[in-house]
Design brief:
Length: 292
């Protein structure tokens, strides 16, 4: 069966000896690794969208470092900020290798003692991963691109919230002083309907920043934006105030490295975070910092 060819955002510049072996296309929720494997599992970021997996065999006397480092620079130039990088044992060894998404043999080969892994995201929430290994007299490369789907209907947004426990609130029209522009905001309709249909849940509206945690102005602005979203949900959509809170988490939950502009763009966001409902007798937390 013929499959439509995807629009690939990242085209790697590879050595002349690189031979493309395979390309696979799917639409799924992809867990982008954000840390090494440990006894508690592996931290990851879920991206729902189109996933393209490509593999190459490079028949040159190169090391995994010599292949990986130029590709990371190319990723940065294309607007991706590394989220997590590791090498062999430091990744978590056998457990990491079998927890991540790897194209099966003979299209990809991984030597547990000699592989490197990189995951990255851009400012729009799209992801890229690199898996590079040596073996069988060649270097093997798997490049996976995840193009985040922009949810087009309320059901997609609600499903994303259930699947991942969080939803980045896109295109929120903030004006002067973190106030919201007048007029309907479709994602607020989705959040209100979700709470109405799921009485066992609450939401935290969480402001994330890329700036240092001790920046009072940054904290004040972020918390004001989160509180504006909460206030609009209560005033315009009749959401019970006890079921939505506003928090500022600052830079403490990054999705990418904050050391460059791309990573800062990825990290600066407003999210709705899904929470279980408190018992009816429990006192609801006040708005404020996450550790208040």
């Amino acid at each position: 069966m013929a499959v439509a060819q995807p629009a690939l955002a990242f085209q790697p510049d590879l050595p002349a000896a690189a031979r493309e072996i395979s390309q696979r296309l799917s639409d799924t929720a992809y867990d982008l690794p954000a840390g090494p494997w440990s006894r508690d599992g592996m931290d990851s970021l879920t991206i729902t969208g189109q996933v393209v997996r490509r593999t190459w065999r490079i028949e040159e006397g190169l090391t995994t470092r010599q292949v990986t480092e130029p590709l990371v620079e190319q990723m940065r130039a294309a607007g991706y900020a590394p989220v997590f990088t590791c090498e062999a044992r430091a990744c978590g060894g056998f457990d990491f290798r079998f927890a991540i998404d790897v194209v099966p043999a003979p299209d990809m080969f991984v030597d547990l003692a000699d592989f490197r892994y990189v995951s990255a995201m851009d400012g729009d929430g799209n992801g890229v991963t690199l898996l590079v290994s040596r073996g069988r007299n060649a270097v093997w490369l798997q490049l996976t691109e995840i193009a985040r789907a922009t949810p087009g209907v309320p059901g997609d947004l609600a499903r994303a919230l259930v699947e991942t426990g969080r939803l980045v609130l896109e295109d929120i029209p903030f004006g002067e002083g973190a106030t919201l522009e007048p007029g309907p905001i479709p994602v607020f309709d989705v959040l209100a309907a979700f709470l109405d249909e799921r009485p066992d849940t609450r939401l935290a509206i969480v402001a994330h920043s890329a700036e240092p945690a001790d920046g009072d102005a940054t904290r004040a602005e972020g918390l004001a934006e989160a509180r504006s979203v909460r206030a609009r949900l209560i005033a315009d959509h009749g959401v019970d105030p006890a079921r939505v809170e506003a928090l500022w988490l600052g830079p403490f939950a990054p999705r990418a490295s904050p050391l460059d502009a791309t990573g800062q763009s990825v990290n600066r966001r407003i999210e709705a975070v899904l929470l279980p409902q408190h018992p009816a007798t429990a006192e609801q937390p006040a708005d404020g910092d996450a550790d208040d």
